[in-house]
């Protein structure tokens, strides 16, 4: 770790990897931040045992432990979808560790316990490959796959390659997560980033976060659906830089 650079921790969305979700943003921020990216259980290179009855709080603790192996101070956080929910949990449970957060395409609650149970049942029966076609329509704004076919294909391949146990465990964590009544406890600065075409977490979901926390700001991105870091990396990189400059100035006071 370079002591002169802020630490940026990145959390991916369900069915992706840190590299496919956040790689384009990391490339743009190279040399400006020390990046710590983590994987969801059963996703990407994380092929160890999947914890039973996984919760978002469990994932937040995993993140804190992983960061502590490399850095013992506070950090900036950015996450997409379930990665954004982990950011909310970090802000609630570990506020001394998080300087501020960019929460993309997420919600204080996403879907219902029933909808996530149905998704998990489909994956147990048919595997993650059965999700690819419908997921492409949910994840990407119209025209994205034609403009950036390699980026889109990498994300969909990551989904196909995700282990059944890991995917279904995260579905369970998503189904149980609801911190709508705790948003007012979040004191650190939060930028809530919505995709204008996101049917999973529409702009209203991000507005709820921005309005509910004590220092929130809403950004709505045109031509973006549910994978903002991959769909609009330049805009996400700018939001991260702006938040970093803000919290660095406040810390220096």
Automatic annotation (TrEMBL):
Highest taxon above the source species: Bacteria
Keywords, in A-Z order: Hydrolase
A Pfam family it matches: Hydrolase_4
Domain (Serine aminopeptidase S33) ranges: 27-231
Record InterPro entries: AB_hydrolase_1, AB_hydrolase_fold, AB_hydrolase_sf, Hydrolase_4
UniProt key word Hydrolase: yes
Gene Ontology MF: a single term: hydrolase activity
Transmembrane regions listed in the UniProt entry: none
SUPFAM superfamilies for the chain: alpha/beta-Hydrolases
Listed name of the protein: Alpha/beta fold hydrolase
